[in-house]
Design goal:
Blueprint: H1 3-13, H2 15-40, H3 42-47, H4 51-83, H5 85-93, H6 98-138, H7 151-173, H8 175-178, H9 181-185, H10 199-216, H11 224-263, H12 265-268, H13 273-313, H14 315-322, E1 327-330, H15 334-345, E2 352-366, E3 375-382, H16 383-392, E4 405-409, E5 425-430, E6 433-443, E7 455-459, H17 461-470, E8 474-481, H18 488-497, E9 505-506, H19 507-560, H20 565-602, H21 607-636
Parallel strand pairs: 3-7, 4-6
Antiparallel strand pairs: 1-8, 1-9, 2-3, 2-5, 2-8, 4-7, 5-6
Helix pairs in contact: 1-6, 2-4, 2-6, 2-7, 2-19, 4-7, 4-19, 6-7, 6-19, 10-11, 11-13, 13-19, 13-20, 13-21, 14-19, 15-18, 19-20, 19-21, 20-21
Length: 640
């Protein structure tokens, strides 16, 4: 029997242990291959106006995925190495030379990698078309039917994963040279002393995480911390304090919790809780690094996916804020305006909900009292025109202004960033007419499209009438139509005959552009998130299965002294629940703070999309938990 035959036999016998690693690796290859295929496909790039953006995005995502998969495979191999040290020692004891054992381990890992690569590329070639259809759908484009697999993508994937596979295979080859024979035999017997609880480190962990959270939740503009440290250094400090704090949390606070559980004699001596609590206590420090990595990866995944999905979820709302009207343009020629009206009226799929002509006046306002920036252009409208548009837009809001009273319309208003309008006086000059106005109200929305006009100020009807006498108004045509999010053809037709000076703005263009960008983000972050989730779940799975193999003898003794299998199952379930729950809860807490900071920055409510992301992530995590418990139970109670 050759070394290669032995390697094949070992793979068959250990396939149940390799399966999740093998499946995760295949999934990673499928996603990488899909990303690279999308990067190279000309048809996809031609579909979108932002083709360079798509290509660059998939290139960046591919690099991130490649680095992560390399680390994941290397990390997973370290678990398999520890699990098989005794087997390797046995080969050496039977007289097999180190070089031959190394070759056998190399063949195993390399063969497994090649099979995963072949299956991954095959599945990627089949599924790529469906992934592309999904991408086009979330980006708001029609499904492509002529997508073809790129030869360059296949070559790229083979080169990248061959390098990763060769590197990890050499890692397996070196196992026999890194340890003494006695160390290999006693690998599973090497225990850890009972960890000591450090009050200082426990307090420091909570303090560091608290500092990181506190800095992250500070106002970027008004906070002295952000001003002093700068935008480049502050995020690094937040990351450092939270990551170090998380490691110390798992290394010290969890020890305190387990020792408190140990002191609770009633619970500790109930059933076989003594076994579960003791095993967790003795191993928690050894697991601290792994749990920290999983918590950080979970936080990163949830933050990235939550941000992307929030952008996608709020796209319509954000577009509506910038474009409350379906179409808006400055009247430059009555003939062109009539043509626009006729074009829209003839489109039976987009009936006119309202159409108004709004006179406006553009002035340069002295904003010294607001921004201290000097003169800035603003657009003035009358209170009656505001009320008319507000009623058409179902805002249930109206203004009653007199004399020099004014209301600011600021759709981009952000607490702490934008000026305090109410109670502030500003002045402007129209020809020789100079006027002061006092802001008595603020509306955090606008009734006019932001790309056609400047920031809008509503003045009283009497003041507007006086201004019209000294400055000819600019008329704005505003339309609201049905099915505005599906008005590509109508929008392009209107664009074709409106001059640039009309400053044409519309709902559809901004909506489709936002959908394309946020759809691309959610597609990439979603699949990267799935890879990260598969990897984090697999890492815990491998870690617990390694411990299950070590604990097999202990549980067999428990069975012999009369402990029921049901009690053993409960003990295993509780131990694994602790190991799965603490990094997940830490990751959710970290991501919740990060997304709260983002929500405060954008002045947007992200509760619903973030809750959905956390729910889905937790659901998949629970599946990994039950799979781990089931496999752990089978290993420890497997008869010899």
């Amino acid at each position: 029997m050759t070394l290669f035959n032995i390697a094949q036999k070992n793979m068959k016998n250990n396939f149940s242990n390799y399966f999740l690693y093998f499946a995760s690796m295949i999934f990673s290859i499928v996603i990488y291959f899909t990303f690279v295929s999308l990067k190279y496909d000309k048809t996809i790039l031609a579909t979108s106006e932002g083709s360079p953006k798509i290509s660059a995005a998939f290139s960046a995502a591919s690099v991130v995925l490649m680095i992560f998969v390399a680390i994941f495979i290397w990390y997973s191999n370290s678990f398999f190495t520890r699990k098989r040290k005794k087997e390797v020692a046995l080969y050496s004891l039977l007289g097999v030379r180190k070089k031959q054992i190394g070759k056998m381990l190399f063949y195993e890992n390399f063969t497994l990698g090649i099979i995963a690569l072949a299956i991954g590329i095959a599945l990627g070639s089949i599924l790529s078309k469906y992934f592309v259809s999904l991408l086009m759908k979330v980006m708001g484009h029609d499904t492509l039917v002529n997508f073809s697999v790129s030869f360059a993508a296949i070559v790229n994937t083979i080169i990248v994963f061959m390098i990763i596979t060769l590197f990890t295979s050499f890692q397996g080859y070196r196992v026999i040279y890194r340890f003494k024979l006695i160390d290999l035999f006693q690998a599973e017997k090497q225990g850890e002393p009972e960890p000591k609880a450090s009050f200082f480190l426990a307090l420091l962990s909570i303090l560091l995480i608290g500092i990181g959270y506190w800095i992250a939740l500070q106002n970027l503009v008004t906070s002295s911390i952000w001003k002093t440290l700068g935008m480049a250094i502050t995020p690094l400090i937040i990351l450092a304090t939270v990551i170090i704090g998380t490691y110390l949390l798992f290394n010290s606070v969890t020890v305190y919790l387990l020792k408190l559980a140990k002191k609770n004699k009633k619970s500790y001596w109930n059933g076989i809780n003594i076994i579960g609590i003791s095993q967790l206590l003795y191993r928690i420090k050894g697991n601290a690094r792994t749990l920290t990595i999983i918590a950080v990866l979970s936080a990163t995944t949830l933050s990235a996916v939550g941000t992307s999905y929030s952008s996608y979820y709020n796209n319509r709302h954000n577009t509506q804020i910038a474009n409350p009207n379906s179409f808006m343009f400055t009247v430059t020629d009555n003939t062109v305006s009539n043509k626009v009206k006729e074009t829209i009226s003839n489109d039976i799929d987009h009936q006119i909900m309202y159409h108004e002509t709004i006179p406006t006046i553009e002035v340069n306002v002295d904003t010294t009292n607001l921004y201290n920036y000097g003169d800035m252009p603003y657009t003035l409208i009358s209170a009656s025109d505001f009320n008319k548009l507000a009623n058409n837009q179902n805002r249930k809001d109206s203004l009653s202004l007199k004399g020099n009273q004014a209301t600011a319309l600021d759709a981009a208003y952000m607490e702490g960033y934008s000026p305090k309008y109410i109670g502030t006086e500003v002045s402007f000059k129209v020809n020789e007419f100079e006027q002061k106005i006092a802001f008595t109200d603020l509306k955090k929305y606008s009734v006019l499209n932001s790309n056609t006009v400047f920031n809008v100020i509503v003045v009283s009807d009497e003041l507007f009438t006086e201004l019209v006498k000294v400055a000819p108004p600019l008329d704005m045509e505003v339309y609201k139509i049905k099915n505005e999010d599906d008005a590509e053809k109508l929008t392009n037709e209107i664009k074709s005959f409106l001059p640039d000076e009309a400053k044409f703005s519309n709902f559809y263009s901004d909506y489709s552009s936002g959908l394309e960008t946020s759809g691309l983000m959610i597609f990439m972050s979603g699949f990267l998130g799935l890879v990260f989730l598969a990897a984090t779940g697999s890492i815990i799975y491998f870690k617990q299965l390694t411990e299950a193999t070590s604990d097999k003898g202990r549980y067999e003794i428990l069975l012999k002294i009369g402990v029921k299998k049901k009690e053993i199952y409960k003990s295993i379930a509780k131990q694994n629940l602790f190991i799965f729950a603490i990094p997940l809860l830490a990751g959710i807490a970290h991501s919740a703070v990060a997304l709260t900071a983002l929500s405060n920055l954008l002045q947007t409510n992200l509760v619903v999309p973030v809750a959905i992301c956390i729910g889905v992530y937790t659901g998949v995590y629970i599946i990994y938990y039950f799979l781990t418990v089931k496999t752990y139970y089978k290993i420890v109670l497997k008869t010899k």
